[in-house]
Specification:
globular; about 0% strand; 4 helices; mainly alpha
Length: about 80
């Protein structure tokens, strides 16, 4: 049986967001990003994660990296 790599990456992303130990405001952002992922809105999740990732939040950086790696929620390179 083969595993879908993107699916595995998205599960890892949900785990990283769920395990985030951050300030209360960032935790709210992470909960919102996790909800966006659950409904398949990868663009919204990326938009939510980007500012926290830029501020150095490791969970947001991981989450955004997984989305970028999987090509989810970001513009396609031409």
């Amino acid at each position: 049986m083969t595993r879908e790599p993107v699916g595995s990456l998205l599960r890892a992303l949900a785990l990283a967001i769920g395990c985030a130990c951050a300030a209360p405001g960032v935790q709210a952002d992470m909960a919102t990003a996790k909800a966006a992922l659950a409904r398949g809105d990868f663009a919204a999740a990326a938009k939510i994660l980007e500012p926290d990732a830029a501020r150095g939040n490791p969970a947001a950086q991981t989450g955004l990296g997984v989305l970028l790696l999987g090509g989810r929620g970001v513009p396609k390179d031409e």
